Amino acid sequence: MMKIHISIFLLLISVIGFAQTQTVQIQTSAQCEMCKKKIEKQVMAVKGVKNAVLDLNTKIVRVKYDSKKVQLNDIKTAISQAGYDANEVKADEKAYSQLEDCCKKKK
Ligand SMILES: [Cu+2]
Prior knowledge:
The structure is a single chain. By secondary structure, the protein is of the alpha+beta class. It has a single domain, classed as Alpha-Beta Plaits (2-Layer Sandwich). It is built from 4 helices and 3 strands; from the N terminus they run αβαββαα. The protein has helices spanning 2-20, 33-44, 72-81, 93-97, and strands spanning 21-27, 49-55, 60-66. β2 and β3 (60-66) form a beta hairpin. It binds copper (II) ion.
C-alpha cells in the first residue's frame, strides 16, 4: 500500500513539473549569427528561462521557460531591450539604434 502511495506521489510531482515548463516560439527581427547569439544570451539571462534557440532561417526563437517564474511578456521585453522585435513588441528604439549595421532590419 505504501509503495502505491509513493508512486502516485512521484507521478504527481512529474506531472506538475511538466506543467510548469512552457515552450513558446517568438518571431524576432534577427539578421545574422551575432543577433542569434545576442538574443539567445539575453533570453537565457531571464530568470526562469531554461533554454533558448534561435533559427536564423525563420528568425523564430524557441524558448523553454518555467511559467511560475517568468511571464511570456518578460521574455519579449528582454528581446526588445536587446534591440529586436519580439512578436507584436517592437524593438526598444535606443537599443536598436546601437546595433551594428549588419544587425539592423533590411528595408
Ligand atoms: Cu546581427
